[in-house]
Specification:
Structural class of chain A: alpha+beta
Number of helices of chain A: 10
Distance between the termini of chain B: 37 Å
Helix content of chain B: 40-55%
Shape of chain A: elongated
Radius of gyration of chain B: 30 Å
Strand content of chain A: 25-35%
Strand order of the largest sheet of chain B: 2-1-5-4-3
Helix content of chain A: 25-40%
Largest interface: A-B, 32 and 29 residues
CATH class of the largest domain in chain B: Alpha Beta
Number of domains of chain B: 3
Largest sheet of chain A: 6 strands, mixed
CATH topology of the largest domain in chain B: Alpha-Beta Plaits
Radius of gyration of chain A: 25 Å
Oligomer: heterodimer
Shape of chain B: elongated
């Protein structure tokens, strides 16, 4: 396996469209890196540049110690699994996995060794003689993975490999991919727009937007400490609640004044200090709070008077293990994720409180985080 | 004709079942496929066997068989062993290879027919007569896809595409030049452009991952008659060219979705030059700096929405307005006005087309 180094990678198409702009990333050996972002953000283009399927307009790409900008895909020692795979219907599982090696004129004995090894990793040994028709969806997907594994590459590149599967199978395959990563100890770059896949699979996640890297971090840090509004809004479902508020000083306290009403949130001391130092007094900022950090339990509200508010429930959604409550705070649509034991129902006036230790505050103009 | 690989696979398969080793050579003694190590030891024996009247012979503890293509001697099969079972198995293998030769010859005929059909080399009456002889349905729904890979004469890519469609006897894979692979795909009832798009995306991804080559695929419109297949081919060809000029970010291009690009592609170059001269007064829009071009493209992408464009460009709204004003001064076109915006958009596309045509001429 190998490390990768992407240095100032840019992709400009002949029509002038800048798909990726100054992409920098060091990927360590055996890392599981996820590229995530909305469609058109440049994640697939970046992956395709690593694969050699798109030319790099500027910048340098190293696989291991070798500069590979001008190296053909087949000589980069990589293997790919893409979204629109197909198994050769007339071939057995063994032949499907061996086909790419046969094309590369790998000796027969070597092919057999590689296929059998891959089949063992993927738990496909008992299915090697079967044709694709006789396989389940999950088994077919594993064969497609097997075709990549038999190449024994330094790096695996996966572009939304699960997006054509139904929801149940996707969850199952997600677990399988995590297992395969552990067994192979492989370096994997994985593109997805599904944040659940990103959060559960990646050792590090690269969040992209408009061809620009927004944040590279561990799943937990991305969720807990987003660097800007985009990352905060993109990671997490339901997404983080965003509320415009004016920073005001009240005696020794710093408060966030929401809307035109009397809704004030007292900012914790450590965050208040950063607001003062940043010169935000009197300015509008965006406060962010995740749905699970808004509580309706009596005991929590009693201990959190600095962030308590009263609102009317507009929508109640029971999802089994949790309930989503939809309401607004001074005209800003908000969601709370609460315990299903909640007594709140549509039309009820309820008091809730925010966990201010989880409060995020962003600059309204630059959209960058002021304090997490 | 039949490939050596097919012969090798066939005798490998039969050896697995019968445990008898085989070798296939041409009539000059050159080994084409074999399940055991063969040197020159059979050369003399093959030569005398070819000249003999016998259809089979036992030489050096091996059974020799003649394989005919109709009446023409094509190949020699050698089976290891001299007992009766080996003789019987050898006869069966000979029969199998003869049938394979016929099948592949028929496929070759079909391939020729499809090539001529695509290139409009057939009279209407010939299309129907030959289609009938080759058992090709004349009134099926079909579409032509063109697959272009980065490298010319890419045998790995061709093999990958062939293998992908090998079980589908109603689809044809051929080539009329060294640059591309052509797929004439028959569609089942209820299948339409969505299915074609899926197939094309699969071809691209399979070529990327299996053959490890960059590929572009284009397709024409669906035709209902065999005689119209050449039209679908021409459309696919145009889609491939127009796609390269105007939609370089896409790997799959449909003729149906070419939009205004299709119209511009058919304009004569002198007319384009005249148009650009009138609009930009001798200046060329590709002389604009990168910042101006990216501003214009983003503004078009966001349907002339100033707020959204400035947000996406991370610039203040007034900065964008200033840039648009500056552009208006130099070109006389105000991109905030739909009429001017469309003129500018077409002009940019025309310039792109002219540049492409100039580069391909050299």
């Amino acid at each position: 396996m190998a490390s990768l180094s992407l240095r100032h990678i840019t992709k400009v198409y002949p029509n002038g469209f800048v798909a990726v702009k100054d992409f920098n990333l060091e990927i360590k050996d055996k890392e599981f890196i996820i590229f995530v972002g909305p469609s058109g953000c440049g994640k697939s283009t970046t992956l395709r540049m690593v694969a050699g399927l798109e030319e790099i307009s500027s910048g340098e790409l190293y696989i291991g110690e070798k500069l590979v900008n001008d190296v053909e895909p087949k000589d980069r020692d990589i293997a790919m699994v893409f979204q629109n795979y197909a198994l050769y219907p007339h071939m057995t599982v063994y032949d499907n996995m061996a086909f790419g090696l046969k094309l590369r004129k790998v000796p027969k004995a070597e092919i057999e060794r590689l296929v059998k090894e891959a089949a063992k990793i993927l738990d496909l040994e008992h299915l090697l003689d079967r044709k694709p028709k006789a396989l389940s969806g999950g088994q077919r997907q594993r064969v497609a993975m097997g075709r990549a594994i038999v190449r024994d590459p330094k790096v695996f590149l996966m572009d939304e490999p699960l997006s054509n599967l139904d929801a149940k199978l996707r969850v199952q395959m997600r677990v399988e991919i995590a297992k395969i990563h552990k067994r192979l100890g492989a370096t994997i770059i994985y593109v997805t727009h599904d944040q659940t896949e990103a959060m559960t699979l990646g050792t590090r996640i690269v969040v992209m937007k408009d061809g620009i890297v927004q944040q590279v971090d561990s799943p937990k840090n991305l969720y807990d400490k987003p660097v800007n509004l985009f990352v905060a809004g993109f990671m997490g479902s339901p997404q983080m609640n965003f509320i415009d508020a004016v920073v005001e000083q009240e005696g020794d306290d710093i408060v966030l004044h929401i809307g035109q009403g009397r809704q004030y949130i007292k900012v914790p001391a450590n965050q208040a200090k950063l607001l003062v130092e940043g010169g935000y007094i009197g300015r509008t900022v965006v406060m962010g709070i995740r749905p699970e950090d808004i509580h309706d339990e009596e005991s929590f509200i009693q201990n959190s008077q600095d962030s308590a508010f009263t609102t009317t429930i507009r929508l109640y959604e029971l999802l089994g293990a949790e309930v989503y409550l939809y309401f607004d705070i001074e005209g800003y649509d908000c969601t709370a994720r609460v315990n299903p034991r909640t007594q709140a129902r549509i039309g009820d006036n309820v008091t809730m409180a925010m966990d201010l230790s989880k409060l995020h505050i962003f600059d309204k103009d630059t959209e960058q985080v002021i304090t997490n | 004709m039949i490939s050596n690989q097919i012969l090798q696979t066939t005798i490998d398969g039969i050896k697995e079942i019968s445990r008898v080793d085989f070798c296939v050579s041409d009539t000059d003694g050159k080994v084409i496929a074999s399940t055991f190590e063969v040197g020159n030891e059979f050369n003399n024996a093959i030569s005398s066997f070819v000249n003999s009247e016998a259809d089979s012979q036992v030489v050096q503890d091996h059974q020799f068989f003649k394989v005919y293509d109709e009446t023409q001697l094509e190949l020699i099969l050698i089976a290891q062993g001299s007992n009766e079972d080996t003789y019987m198995i050898g006869k069966m293998v000979t029969f199998q290879i003869q049938n394979l030769l016929v099948a592949y010859k028929e496929r070759f005929d079909k391939d020729n027919f499809i090539k001529n059909l695509l290139l409009d080399n057939l009279l209407l009456v010939d299309i129907y007569n030959r289609a009938k002889k080759l058992h090709i349905q004349t009134d099926a729904k079909r579409v032509v896809c063109i697959i272009e890979t980065k490298n010319e004469k890419d045998s790995v890519a061709l093999e990958t595409v062939r293998t992908l469609f090998i079980g589908k006897s109603k689809d044809f894979i051929t080539a009329v030049d060294e640059k591309s692979i052509i797929l004439v795909k028959e569609l089942e009832d209820g299948q339409g452009y969505e299915e074609i798009e899926r197939v094309c995306n699969t071809i691209v991804d399979m070529l990327n991952t299996e053959a490890m080559v960059k590929a572009n695929v284009s397709y024409g419109t669906i035709v209902k008659e065999l005689k119209e297949v050449s039209r679908s081919y021409k459309e696919a060809k145009m889609a491939l060219d127009v796609g390269k000029i105007f939609y370089s970010t896409k790997n799959v291009i449909a003729y149906n979705n070419l939009g205004i690009g299709r119209l511009i592609y058919q304009l004569p170059i002198p007319l384009c030059k005249m148009f650009i001269k009138e609009i930009f007064d001798g200046k060329s829009p590709d002389e604009f700096d990168e910042e101006t071009l990216s501003t214009i493209n983003k503004f078009f992408e966001n349907s002339l929405n100033v707020s959204e464009t400035s947000r996406q460009l991370y610039i203040h709204r007034n900065t964008l307005v200033y840039r648009l004003d500056k552009l208006q001064k130099s070109t006389g076109l105000d991109l905030r006005v739909f009429e001017d915006a469309i003129t500018f958009k077409i002009a940019l596309m025309v310039v792109k087309y002219m540049n492409y045509m100039e580069n391909t001429e050299y």
